[in-house]
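Reply to dn_fold:

You asked what the input looked like. This is it:
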Amino acid sequence: MPTKLQRLSTKFLKWRYKNISNKTFTHIMSVLVGLLAGLASVTLKNIVYFIEVSLEQGILISSNSLYFILPIIGLTLVYLYVKYIHKEQLQHAVSSILFSLSKKKGIIKPKHIYTQLIAAPLTIGFGGSTGLLGPAVASGAAISSNIGRFFHINAKTRSLLIACASAGAIASIFQSPIAAIVFAVEVFSLDFTMLSMLPLLLASISGVLTSYFFLGNEVLFNFTLSENFEVKDTFFYIILGIGTAFASIYFTRMYFGIQKLFSRLKTPKYKLLVGGASIGVMLYFIPPLYGEGFSFINDLLHGNHIKALGKTPFDSYITNIWVVIALLFGITIFKAVAMTTTLAAGGAGGIFIPTMVMGSALGNVMAKVINHSGIGFSVSESNFTLIGMAGLIAGVLHAPLTAIFLIAEITGGYELFVPLMITSSISYLITRNAIDYTIYTKELARSGSLLTHNKDQSVLTLMKLDDVIETNFKTVYPDMTLGEMLHKSVAKSTRNIFPVVDKNKALVGIVLLDDIREFMFDTSLYENTKVETFMHNAPEHIFYEKDSMQVVMKKFQHSGAWNLPVIKKGQYIGFVSKSKLLTAYRRELINFTG
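and this is what came back:
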């Protein structure tokens, strides 16, 4: 029998369908998921802050010699939680959301709501060099998905609400509602129309209001722009764009390189120990790698590079500006290493904020080199720090508009809009030509699970091979006689193609009705002519485990066939017909664009 809650839910849904239009209800839901995603972001911030303050006041932090063991402790706690409670391997936050949108109709398990609220703070609070944005977006997306399921919202609207949750989370963390909307459009490949813009706007505003309600006027970057853009600096911003592009390529390749290296370690315990020890050593020599790194960025923006660098083994040389430049460049190099090592070792977190840290260090390094190289030029170090962040975001995430609007909103104005556009566009164009896909999308693209702004490709991604496989074909065997084939298969089939399989159900060929038509009435051939006489190879094969719908469509296009066999685990399971594939494509296209 249905519970009282289920009965109330049913009554509410009936009332809603009668009194509230789908459009209005979507707007109401966008406000709700924006608020809840903002609340998840605020919760993550406060948990991390609590852990960091507790450790700073505790015995461990007071002893520098024990500083390096903190990442191992944090990763161990995450490992225990994942093994005994979560019981699934942690996935990259944004990539897992993109996969759920393309292959699971936006359905995300409820446990992902609280998993990120536990695993990410343990990772970052104990020194893991990742960011909170990814976990905040993942938690908000899980909240949105499950609210959508509860209210029986269709898959297309549920996907829009997941994007709304990401906008709410970003707006709450950075207090930058416009950048939050742009991020959702660029990363989740939404069509920027009124249908999507208004829900995103409502969710973004809700996220910002949640942040203001719980945190007041507290902002991540307590910085006021004091130096405007000067035309004479244009050349240096172009050079910064090129520099951030190469840094973005390095960041991305380092990520996949370290992930591949850790994949060779046999067990999670080995990954934990190797990763935790490596992070600890890096933190000992480069303390700013600890945690997210917002304080590091703020110190650079205020011109306090000594405070930004913290206490290092090189303090006796810190008065030399070139030592400072070398240390800051070291942060540029090792932030990517520390972040990827944290994730590969089993930690949780995102890449967005580490990207900003790396960009801020690179921009500051370039400004210091210009100012102290004796070439007669002087540039604003704070401006280069900000624009360096934009360059890395544009390059690493392939999100130039997000980079531009985020930094513009952080600075409280658009005085740096021109250099932001120069550096971000150059970084994006170079990186996009060098690397087709981002950290978020590479594995999804490889498996054919990536939604893009290309409608044709997105529709194919949303389609499922299972929906177009037909199994009502009569199989025959190579040693079967022509007479047996005619009586047992041809006479009982409505199809004109017959798959030939062996005793293990492996496909060895096909026979078309046209292949045997001229022999069908020659009874003298019935007993002494085998099926293998008429069979031939299929023009192409569809492999269930590895062929995406894009690949399937290309195989039909290149082969010119009307039917292609599907192979799963080495066995024949059915055919896909071109007519059914095109019908399914048209239906999905209507659903996608309607």
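The chain is about 65% helix and 5% strand.
Hope that clears it up.
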